[in-house]
Model the fold of this input.
Amino acid sequence: MISAKPYPMVTIFRGMADFNVDGMAIPYPEFVPRLYNLCNRLGFRKGLIMPSRAFCSDENQGLPIILLTKHFGIFPFNHGRVGGIMSIDRHAPHANHGEDSVIVQASHVGYDPKTGVYGTYQRARMLEKTISVSCGKLSHVITPYLEQYHFARNRIFLSRSESGTFLITAKNSFIDFFTHPVKNGLVLRLQNIAKIDEEGCARPVGAISTMQSFEVSQEFKKQMDLAGYEWKSGNGECIGNYLTDDLFFFREDFHETDDSIFLERNIIDFMPRIVTSPNPLLQAAKINIQHEFARAVESIRRGKEYNGKNLLYIAGLNIDISEYDGFPPTTYFVPWAAHIQLRSNPRGDFRLPVEQEALYNMLMSENIKNPDETNLKEEITRMLKSPRFDIRSPK
Done:
């Protein structure tokens, strides 16, 4: 009898698809009517579509909700948690509130057109001109990791010894020693930096009270040379921006204890990419949306709540722009992907998600005019003119 050959242990990393923003942002006053017209073209029925939104709770997400109400003729169901997390346990009630179903999900990030910088927003109801982070929850989740990263950049050093050896020197707390691995915090991937001996070990060439020095590998030295780095003698200098996302990871107990733990779980594996980004909040929002879309589509396909129904679930990024040159605050939508299922053809053209470029083209091919839009002012006027009912407790 021949025994089965064991599979080798392989470390598998999850990749992220390219999430393009350039040329993909659609102003919400244009996006929502295009979305409504797309629903009509897919066979959704006028007056029977129940929209839902999964947005953060910030006030700057109000315009998208108002426009969904205006164009679909009814206030949207709420599918969302802070940070743009989808509450998948709300599929059933949403499905029961309309014959046809639409879900729009988005994380959000502020954008300053003057500087091109993402992440901040001017609060409209503060006495003073107050600029703050656009999504406080997203910022709250990534801030501890940003602080650790900036701390490490200033406490890891590159240098050239008198003998011409090229060294990296790091605090002990960043190093996964064989007998004392890092329990919590930033961990250097020394295997990507240091010279490894024939026994597969990275051995220090020097040590002081709180730090270890390792000779760097030829490959790392070559990468630094290609980047134009000039090695300094003596104590060298801080690694700074050269502490790139491939040189470390975080080993952490989650900081969050409420619903935002879902947000932290989504982005933790990509935190090195986030904290090294020039726009960390934008990077975090894009990664979160990709994870949430995959999770929500899985829940829809495995569940039964939307069986036999028309459903369009679209995920993307809301970009918030503060009041600008006298114009009111506004929001843009950057589509990411869509899940579509049609009652008349459940196993037809949309077995796979509609990816970003195809989705953008689908939306932009629709008319910006919605013949069925609701005049909210007229509807409120009709409510004010309606009979005043004598509402009493039962006897």
In short: The chain has a mean pLDDT of 91.
